[in-house]
Design goal:
Elements (H helix, E strand, L loop, with lengths): L1 E11 L7 E3 L14 E6 L2 E14 L11 E2 L8 H13 L4 H7 L3 H4 L16 E4 L1 H8 L10 H13 L2 E2 H6 L4 H9 L3 E3 L19 H11 L6 E7 L5 H14 L3 E5 L7 H11 L4 E3 L5 H12 L5 E4 L11 E7 L16 H12 L2 E6 L4 H8 L4 E5 L10 E6 L11 H12 L3 E5 L8 E3 L17 E3 L5 E3 L6 E3 L13 E3 L3 H11 L5 E4 L9 H10 L5 E4 L12 E6 L13 H13 L10 E6 L5 H8 L2 H14 L7 E9 L2 H19 L7 E14 L2 E10 L2 H17 L7 E6 L6
Parallel strand pairs: 9-14, 9-15, 10-12, 10-13, 11-12, 13-14, 16-26, 17-24, 17-25, 23-24, 25-26
Antiparallel strand pairs: 1-2, 1-4, 3-4, 3-5, 6-7, 6-8, 18-22, 19-20, 20-21, 27-29, 27-30, 28-29
Helix pairs in contact: 1-12, 4-5, 5-7, 8-9, 17-19, 20-21
Bound molecules: adenosine-5'-diphosphate and zinc ion (2 copies).
Length: 746
């Protein structure tokens, strides 16, 4: 060790699992604190580094230790408490600290931009609309201030006509960036706000809380200022969101900030509007569709303390909220809270850790809680709060199973369901068909020789699509193929599609109900920007119609006129090899069924099943979710599966399966050697074996799954594995990732 007056120990965005030492920049005398960024030399390049620790010694001698180039921030942009959480996460997930830390910073901060509000430059804006001022001007063009600027005036006229215009369209019209800039500077146009709404909706009367809701609020608010974790299990439509709103209000009145995490697809404009209407002030939003500048400015608004309420998806979990007083995770069971690449963290679990470190309460809400969270409540680590009734006073929807074994593949929907839907539509209600499979059919087959259309790059079948002419599409690598005119093997002209996706169901429904509008919501039908919103708006208008869609329709929506739901392939999960299959199936059924009968009248739900007598199916429809979940917990306990065991995985991807398996096996062996002794029965290692889908986009995939009865055994092994990985000389394009608490196989 060499002694120095000051050494900055820094994190850098790199896969190297270590910190890097630097000396203060030339002529710098003032103090530097952890959480400040520096420019540092790194190899031949200049990189952004974040000071993590200050030290007075280094293992590097003076001729090896380099000076930082300059200091970027005058004060830390990552607080000590955040650094503490980040380093906890890096330890827990066995992931390099540098990558962990940088993956939570907005892109522009990673690139060294100043931590301040950035003015939006026309270059970064994808779409424009008129500002209030611009609208007024566009309505009275004759006495316009733009008389001498015909191009600016035509931009205004165009926006007036089309309300929203994308940057590409403007380019096509020959409107240059300078013109846009000029109009922007006059305050006549504004970028499309993906953030706060420009005008706030009018306030609504707050409903009087029922006793269960009041009880939840009392319990949580009694814990403001200290750590406590609550599982809020409330049946669908029981008024959970109302509870969140009141708690956030109390938090705000205490002068603190609140963070609400929602699933990827739960961030509907509906929920945002509801919050803004309630609080009569804009809320901050963080989600994946923000532009870099928007993300940066949102980060800054949180950091500078100017915002009290932040709603966001997964990555918002680490938003810089120094006055944070409350965290709420809505739909805590949702799998989008788990990041599946890079740092494979669970935003829900990290949020609980954050609440612990910050000594604040956290609420995990769901109508279908995950077994992990439920078990934490059963074991007394979390407090269970329950909303057992719908806020509207209506009973929960009635569930019926409908046998679909005898159905022809063409129709795919039981007659009883079609008849029931007709009844609901006649009564001026809306009906939803749920099928979590997009496309026309999952299989194209030759009945003569048995040939099946498969993706040349993945181990899966191609999905038949008929939206824009017939074509075949791989849902895993997005490869497209033409529809073969005849069988490539036996040249038979007669090819058949098997099974049904949303496009086929749309056709069946159109044939059956020619006069009823059908709103299809899936990834293919909502590609155009804004089309999802249009469709949801149309559905919320309350006209009788059929809503047909995938997962995108399952959560968070409130369609007042919807009185019937049909779930078409509920039992796919029964055939799944994943031990979480039944849990997922029950969650989906609970969520989808929960869309029905939220206002006006009791809902009716049909579940179409190939195995109507299967005990799981019977169990799900006859008993409340929570009973079924407790039953599944017993099974998991008997089989020593999570949450009664801890699990982790090593996932790998490479161009050669054999080499991949070989490397993974060597890493495993080496880790076991590093550990020295591996107490028998403390750790079970399954694999390495090819993943359930062994090849995707021409890359082979393999996995090693680990189960341990105690976290300690698992984490000592993982620490050894991390060390083996850090020392290994891997081919450049071999990907290996440790996943702690995986929720999926690869
Ligand atoms: P959840 O989040 O549990 O699905 P919401 O909070 O969205 O439920 O409530 C469902 C509907 O019931 C909403 O329209 C909401 O305004 C209404 N609501 C909530 N609480 C009450 C209450 N105490 N009295 C009357 N209506 C309520
Ligand atoms: Zn493919
Ligand atoms: Zn054939």
């Amino acid at each position: 060790m060499y002694q120095y007056p000051a050494v900055y120990r820094c994190a850098i965005q790199s896969p190297l699992n270590r910190l890097f030492d630097y000396l203060p920049p030339q002529g710098h005398a003032g103090p530097v604190h952890p959480g400040q960024r520096l420019w540092v030399p790194f190899g031949q390049r200049k990189m952004v580094a974040v000071v993590v620790e200050l030290a007075q010694q280094s293992e590097f001698p003076p001729d090896k230790l380099r000076q930082a180039v300059s200091i970027i921030d005058q004060q830390p942009i990552i607080s000590n408490s955040q650094l503490q959480l980040l380093s906890w996460a890096a330890d827990y997930y066995h992931h390099p600290l540098g990558d962990t830390l940088f993956s939570f910073l907005p892109g522009l901060l990673r690139k060294g931009r100043a931590a301040q509000h950035l003015e939006v430059s026309p270059r970064q804006v994808g779409a424009w609309q008129l500002s209030t001022h611009g609208k007024a001007l566009a309505k009275a063009p004759q006495n316009s201030a733009l008389k001498r600027a015909p191009k600016q005036a035509s931009l205004l006229a165009h926006l007036h006509q089309h309300s929203v215009v994308t940057a590409d369209e403007l380019k096509a019209l020959g409107i240059s960036r300078n013109i846009i800039r000029a109009v922007l500077e006059k305050g006549l146009i504004e970028p499309i706000a993906t953030g706060p709404l420009p005008t706030l909706p009018t306030p609504t009367k707050r409903p009087e809380l029922n006793s269960e809701q009041q009880n939840c609020i009392n319990e949580v608010s009694a814990h403001f200022g200290r750590y406590a974790c609550f599982l809020l299990h409330g049946v669908t439509g029981s008024g959970k969101t109302e509870v969140y709103l009141r708690l956030i209000d109390e938090c705000r009145q205490r002068g603190q900030q609140a963070l609400l995490l929602v699933p990827e697809i739960g961030l509907t404009p509906q929920i945002v509007q509801r919050f803004e209407r309630y609080f009569q002030s804009p809320v901050l939003l963080i989600h994946s569709a923000l532009t870099e500048i928007e993300r940066h400015n949102t980060w800054y608004a949180a950091f500078s303390g100017s915002a009290d309420i932040l709603i966001g998806t997964r990555s918002a979990m680490l938003a810089p909220l120094e006055r944070l007083g409350l965290i709420i995770v809505d739909e805590e069971h949702d799998s989008s809270f788990k990041q599946q690449e890079g740092l494979r963290y669970s935003a829900r679990d990290l949020a609980v850790k954050r609440a612990q470190l910050a000594q604040i309460p956290i609420v995990l809400g769901s109508a279908s809680p995950s077994l992990e969270t439920l078990q934490n409540a059963e074991a007394g680590r979390y407090t269970l709060l329950e909303l057992t009734r719908r806020a509207s006073g209506l009973p929960l929807p009635k569930l019926t199973v409908s046998d679909c074994r005898e159905l022809s593949a063409e129709r795919g929907i039981a007659l009883a369901i079609l008849k029931a839907a007709e009844r609901h539509l006649e009564q001026q209600q809306q009906v939803m068909f749920f099928l979590n499979r997009r496309g026309y059919a999952p299989t194209l087959i030759c009945p003569q020789c048995g040939w099946i259309a498969r993706c040349p790059a993945c181990d899966v079948r191609l999905t038949a699509h008929r939206d824009f002419g017939q074509r075949l599409l791989c849902h895993h690598c997005d490869r497209r193929a033409d529809w073969p005119g005849s069988c490539p093997t036996c040249h038979s002209q007669e090819l058949h599609t098997l099974g049904a996706g949303t496009q086929r169901v749309e056709q069946v429904l159109t044939d059956y109900y020619p006069a009823v509008p059908i709103i299809r919501v899936d990834r293919d039908s909502t590609q155009r920007k804004g089309s999802l919103l249009d469709k949801l708006e149309q559905a919320r208008s309350g006209q009788p119609c059929i809503l047909l869609g995938t997962q995108m329709l399952a959560k968070g929506h409130h369609f007042p006129a919807l009185s019937m739901v049909a779930i078409l392939d509920a039992d796919a999960a029964l055939y799944s090899a994943d031990f979480r299959g039944p849990e997922r199936m029950a969650q989906t059924i609970t969520q989808v069924a929960g869309r029905a009968g939220r206002a006006g009248r009791q809902g009716e739900v049909f579940i179409q099943s190939q195995l109507p007598e299967h005990p799981l199916v019977q169990h799900i429809i006859t008993r409340p979710y929570i009973d079924f979940a407790r039953h599944l917990l017993e099974e998991r306990q008997q089989l020593a599966l999570p949450p009664f065991a801890r699990s982790a995985a090593l996932f790998g991807e490479y161009k050669s399966l054999n080499e991949l398996l070989q490397t993974m096996s060597e890493l495993d062996q080496q880790s076991v050697r590093t550990l020295g002794t591996l107490a028998p029965n403390t750790l079970t290692r399954v694999g390495p074996v090819p993943a359930p889908m062994p090849r995707r986009a021409n890359r082979f995939r393999a996995q090693l799954i680990l189960y341990a009865s105690h976290a300690k055994a698992l984490h000592s092994y993982l620490a050894a594995l991390r060390q083996s990985l850090d020392q290994a000389r891997l081919p450049r394009d071999m990907r290996l990732a440790i996943d702690v608490d995986p929720i999926d196989t690869n």
